[in-house]
Amino acid sequence: MSDAAPQSNLANLPEFSVTELSAALKRAVEDQFAFVRVRGEISGLKVHSSGHVYFDLKDDKAVLNAVIWRGTAARLRVKPQAGLEVICTGKLTTYAGSSRYQIVVEQVELAGLGALMAMLEQRKKQLAAEGLFDADRKQKLPFLPEVIGVITSPTGAVIRDIMHRLEARFPRRVLLWPVAVQGERAAAEVAAAIAGFNQFDGTRLPRPDLLIVARGGGSVEDLMAFNDEAVVRAAAASRIPLISAVGHETDTTLIDFAADMRAPTPTAAAELAVPVRTELLAQVLDFERRSLRSFSKSMEDRRRHLAQLARVLPRAETLFAAPRQRLDQASDRLGHSLRRNLQVHRTEFAEVAAQLRVRMLQDRMKISGERAAALGARASRAQSARLAQMRRQLEGLARVLDGISYRAVLERGFALVRGEGGAVRRRAAAVTAGEALTLTFLDGDAKAVAGDKPKTSKKKRATDQGSLF
């Protein structure tokens, strides 16, 4: 009985789905914390491509997820920055997708170091407007510098970490310029060290191929020397490529923006400065092995590829099986169709033959013969009429031709006069004395020579025009 009672109580408990429980928790949190003000340090800041801003508010014991929607982020007077201590006003809610609660921020105010951070933000904007942080000013780091200049404290752990990392990766000559990395003198000494290394001419000491400005982590006040305007301008003006390695990965100073490269830690700066010697040797050996294996590997890959292609090709029997079967079926249907077609035509032929009779054929032949005789008679009469008509037309044309022919004129006693070139002489004026002429009569031609022209009056010439003899 004691075991059955708890089981019956559990059965009476309401059952929730995951979505229902998440919605209930969301309503409870939003009703209880509809408007809150939370103070903390911004970390893990991320601006999404959608425009929404995601970050964490943290103190020494807890972390609270925060989100600023795109429309709200555009209206904020204080823009969120990593490491900035702020007071965020908004409402708490839950995100069922990952079972967490978060604050939807509506307003951001500076807190604690807010005034200092605002001053640094103003200085950053000023220097950025002058172009000191432009990407086209950045110099490319040398692949393997011969001499590295390090600007840091000579007594701290930073220089030991850098030397140890360089020794482990690729030993290089290091020139240390000792400076104060904290306090009132730090900014001036760091700026002087950067300018001093750039003034080396290689006579007494070699000129560095790369500069590293390094310091360990600390508070914002401890790192203020590297936010100084003089230091930032010296880093931007450096003709030697410069790596900024100030603080830890979450620390950001203004020299980081002016430097050619930012390293999250001093040790990482040494890793950026030189490659790993063993890795370079291994890479060279690997290139050698790859060059020796390239041909054989290529041939093996092609051989394997050819074998794979051969495996996926179907067999000849498989390729021709279906067409062969369709051909057999078609041949069977063809024979049946031919027999059926022959039967149909035989039936039709028998039906037509049954309709044919000798008497019918004789009558049809008689009618056709009479029609052919009538058509022949009509054709004969039409031919005779056509010939008579054409004969009359020909006789008329002959009479017209005789009427316009010059031979009829010759028959009346006239002659046709031609000159030496065969040209017709129509006027006496066209004939010259002594010219050989050809006289054409009705029955033939005669030769003659033109004599002198007689002198006659104009009236006489007009009446005798064309007569020379």
Question: Summarize this, please?
Answer:
The protein has 469 residues and is α/β, with parallel strands linked by helices. The chain contains 14 helices and 13 strands. Among the domains are: 102 residues, OB fold (Dihydrolipoamide Acetyltransferase, E2P); 157 residues, Rossmann fold; 55 residues, no CATH class.
Characteristic key phrases:
single chain, 469 residues, alpha/beta, OB fold (Dihydrolipoamide Acetyltransferase, E2P), Rossmann fold, five-stranded mixed β-barrel, five-stranded parallel sheet, 14 helices, disordered C terminus
Task: Describe the protein's architecture and organization.
The structure is a single chain. The protein has 469 residues and is an alpha/beta fold. Among the domains are: 11-112, Beta Barrel (OB fold (Dihydrolipoamide Acetyltransferase, E2P)), CATH 2.40.50.140; 122-278, 3-Layer(aba) Sandwich (Rossmann fold); 409-463, no CATH class. Helix content is 49%, strand content 18%. Helix 8 links the parallel strand 9 (242-246) and strand 10 (261-262). Helix 5 (157-169) packs parallel to helix 9 and helix 6 runs parallel beside helix 7. The chain is elongated. Mean pLDDT is 84; it is low at 458-469.
List strands and helices in order, with pairings.
Layout lengths: L3 H9 L5 H15 L3 E12 L5 E6 L4 E6 L1 H6 L9 E11 L4 E11 L3 H16 L17 E6 L4 H13 L3 E6 L7 H13 L11 E6 L13 H9 L4 E5 L7 H5 L2 E2 L3 H8 L3 H36 L3 H40 L2 H47 L1 H6 L4 E3 L17 E6 L2 E6 L8 H6 L6
Helix pairs in contact: 5-9, 6-7
